[in-house]
Amino acid sequence: MDFSHINEQGRAKMIDVSEKKATKRQAVAKGSVKVNSNTMQLIKSGGIKKGDVLAVAQVAGIMAAKKTSDIIPMCHPLALNGIDIEFDCMDTEILIKATVKCKGVTGVEMEALTAVSAAALTIYDMCKAVQRDIEISDIMLIYKEGGKSGVFRK
Amino acid sequence: MDFSHINEQGRAKMIDVSEKKATKRQAVAKGSVKVNSNTMQLIKSGGIKKGDVLAVAQVAGIMAAKKTSDIIPMCHPLALNGIDIEFDCMDTEILIKATVKCKGVTGVEMEALTAVSAAALTIYDMCKAVQRDIEISDIMLIYKEGGKSGVFRK
Amino acid sequence: MDFSHINEQGRAKMIDVSEKKATKRQAVAKGSVKVNSNTMQLIKSGGIKKGDVLAVAQVAGIMAAKKTSDIIPMCHPLALNGIDIEFDCMDTEILIKATVKCKGVTGVEMEALTAVSAAALTIYDMCKAVQRDIEISDIMLIYKEGGKSGVFRK
Amino acid sequence: MDFSHINEQGRAKMIDVSEKKATKRQAVAKGSVKVNSNTMQLIKSGGIKKGDVLAVAQVAGIMAAKKTSDIIPMCHPLALNGIDIEFDCMDTEILIKATVKCKGVTGVEMEALTAVSAAALTIYDMCKAVQRDIEISDIMLIYKEGGKSGVFRK
Amino acid sequence: MDFSHINEQGRAKMIDVSEKKATKRQAVAKGSVKVNSNTMQLIKSGGIKKGDVLAVAQVAGIMAAKKTSDIIPMCHPLALNGIDIEFDCMDTEILIKATVKCKGVTGVEMEALTAVSAAALTIYDMCKAVQRDIEISDIMLIYKEGGKSGVFRK
Amino acid sequence: MDFSHINEQGRAKMIDVSEKKATKRQAVAKGSVKVNSNTMQLIKSGGIKKGDVLAVAQVAGIMAAKKTSDIIPMCHPLALNGIDIEFDCMDTEILIKATVKCKGVTGVEMEALTAVSAAALTIYDMCKAVQRDIEISDIMLIYKEGGKSGVFRK
Asked: What span, in angstroms and rounded, lies between the C-alpha atoms of D72 and D49?
């Protein structure tokens, strides 16, 4: 007796991409961490007790990008070719930008977004002892190329 | 010859919490995923090809909370007691709320924030084929209790 | 003095597949979870307190398939192209079927078997509070294609 | 507008065990791997090219037990105190038994079952080149003590 | 019929520590990375293209310490309280020292040794493009306290 | 305002290898574990209570090689084709040699070195109850082929 219809709502799958071509792919994502000026001052002067905030966040973002398919359930495992993360510190905002490259059958948007998210969470963790109301915001894809849908630019 | 000063900037450490008391700890974090009304309609009606978006995001958030100390470099490993994630779907916004509980020597803010972030990234991944400009925003701690600093409420 | 013969029994290796061709590969595995009719009723009606049993099991199976080479020591890491899991609920038995696809130099039998096993263990975990003597059984490969040994059908 | 009822089916949670007492816990699980007599002969004589089948399976089972909360979504992370795996080779069947101990707020049934499953999958992987129709069966809990529900014996 | 004697050699177990007391534990390990003076110069001046060598090595060592029980098969999972890594750069040698603290039923020697090893491997990886014959050496425990065997000092 | 220069020291990246060709790659690394003659005797006779030291170390080394990109921050993920570890037991020294093969755009030196390191740490862990001053030493690359820089032989 077939009851498979019971979990049609939950019918999650890692979509079959066997028929897709392996092409060069790139994605760039960004996000912001909002801190107060005291916290920003401590970050810039190396006064955060837990360590060099941006150096640690950079490593965290790169390592998380490599773990993306182990964090995001329906994401395909990919052999990434390159990951680069930049920080732009403004008055009360740290802008994070992550660029990921790969040659494969699916895009690397999730890897770039995961890199930004992990870097942001790490900045939060490094600074939370001095500021309790840090916010992470505006995480989005800003550029993507490769694959059938071609170029996307925000 | 001692050159340890070279990496003073990078002197990251997982802070020693041996002297702290094990107490009951709880943290609640929230975040938003901004989608357009077409995407929201597809999510609600089960029309997303990759699967039941919120069911998958819920599992992803809970599993990521358990991996927090493997994603955030200076975060302490903790044996979590409970993790709960709720979704609130408004017109063009999905509000995510994660509650984490533990009995330990450090708080669980990072676990709650990581749960929200992973759930948000998963919603993004499940829906990206139908909408290219989804945004993740306003990730923050809204409540915390336990430990020396007591209660925090946003 | 050479004593390498001491561990000839233990001479495990991840076999060198450098000379093999990358071809399209697919494997289908199945397994059963035996529950009593009260448990089956609760699963179907959404009455299990821990959550939607089959939705969670589906995610668990797919995520475990991606981790196969980190669970099975001599298994080769592979970039999987597709993973799909189906459930068939009969009176007192849930039949699980997992299909995995890849283009690579080794087959994906272990990925399919691991997906089935993890989904089965998850059903067990979700239901163990209501039934103490659940059994997992009859895990086997039912179909395989690709590679030198061609098609296998049980 | 509140649409949380949409995912009531999928309302999975890692149940809050904060109110439970930490007690000594133990679980014993078993399972079988069915092989033909040629394969059994090769296992016993060390004739499997991939390595010492049972030695590798033992390590795989122990390592997988430690990963249980990263494989089974709603499982609580635990600091395990002891893991032991035994094999009993009969004519065409390898009986696997795993004993897991812990002092904690939840039981270790899933750790014991996961250890058996991973050991079984590893035996399958080590032998699949010589036998195509190996089966894994009869995975179940045979003993459990500790916690409110006390002793369970099958 | 009992053939368990076949794998007596392979009878690995994660030793049962249920009867041991939870006490404060600390371990300090060290190791060396031998580089030539050109490589040392590049490390100190920030001239390594891959990034700030010691900052990255520090994060890698701390993150690896947390993963120790997932790398070393018979190692017990522990909730570490603190991890600190120091570097001492001499003419052609980088001395690495890792201190790990915990309150638990087993010691943290493996965590300290794993931290040193991962930091050393990371320095190697960051510099290998400029020097092909880097060596990692003299990895050992230099101090340990806690547990029944008390203090060890090298 | 651009403050990115603040973290120039920490500007770690996973170098973009998109322009490199996929070629056959191989690396061989070695390392030593120094034990006293009592410990060596116990290893050879199977008298170590924790299990068959070299069998467990072999599995640990192979599994760690597959995790290299999750341990070493700037390392590229690779689909390895083969991993083999050999042990050579001399009077008071165990020589470990690991050979790793791959077809890819970067070399596998880190995989081979990580395999040796993990095997060495495992031998240490298995024997530390009987000897407190074990040392791991002389970890280095002894051979490498493939890629633009061609063959390296120590």
From this structure: 32
